[in-house]
Design goal:
35% helix; alpha+beta; globular; 4-stranded antiparallel beta sheet
């Protein structure tokens, strides 16, 4: 978490978050940088550093430039439920209210581009393209939340892992190899499974020839058709 002055970004020394952050514009394609008045400021976060906390003021909206972000809710008994993984190009932190409902952490070293929520609201009021883009993002988030609710409430462990792998395959695969930024504990907390169950299901899929492993987090989907059949 950080605070930002009117002229330049500053680091919130109390929380010590973004101690390695560097401010400035990041080149390249960006939702924020595609519209006048939405030039983003870049901050870099180290692995497992908090970007914002549950209940903190929702003053900014964020876009992943590189790396990966998880949004999660920590329960009173220490259990954690991950609501979503945000990957390069994803915008997150859009809230209906004035505070964040979840915590956002960097999964690996991650750079995010951010813009003040007030600036985004003003741009949406004056630019139909921005308003439509925000509506589309909100609709996708709602669909994801509904799909995730179905996954947690009705699918078996095998079906949950299959759904996750197909989602990551669609979003991450390059040159036929799926390289996951998240660990198996993250996967379990996203799917509502223990790490042991995630490992057991992945091992079973490997033994059955559905998956191939080139490393702890490098996976090749050898039989997408069969995996899709498990994604009921």
């Amino acid at each position: 978490m950080f605070s930002q002055a009117a002229v330049a970004p500053v680091v919130d020394t109390k929380s010590a978050i973004a101690t390695t952050a560097s401010a400035g514009s990041v080149s390249g394609l960006s939702f924020f940088n595609s519209y006048p008045g939405l030039i983003g400021t870049a901050f870099t976060y180290g692995k497992d550093e908090e970007i914002y906390g549950d209940g903190e003021p929702a003053e900014y909206v964020y876009e992943v430039v590189s790396g990966a972000v998880r949004t999660c809710k920590l329960l009173d008994d220490g259990r954690r439920q991950i609501g979503a993984f945000h990957l390069p190009g994803d915008v997150f932190g859009i809230e209906a209210g004035t505070t964040h409902r979840m915590t956002a952490d960097a999964i690996v070293d991650t750079t995010v581009r951010l813009v003040r929520r007030k600036s985004l609201d003003a741009a949406a009021q004056g630019n139909l393209q921005v308003a439509n883009a925000l509506w589309s993002m909100t609709a996708r988030e709602l669909r994801h939340a509904e799909d995730h609710m179905l996954l947690l409430g009705r699918k078996t462990a095998m079906e949950r892992v299959a759904t996750f792998l197909l989602e990551m395959d669609r979003r991450l695969t390059v040159t036929g190899m799926l390289e996951l930024p998240m660990c198996r504990r993250d996967i379990g907390d996203y799917l509502g499974l223990t790490i042991e169950t995630v490992s057991r299901v992945l091992s079973q899929l490997h033994q059955e020839g559905v998956l191939g492993f080139s490393g702890a987090r490098q996976i090749k989907l050898r039989n997408r058709q069969r995996l899709a059949g498990m994604n009921l």
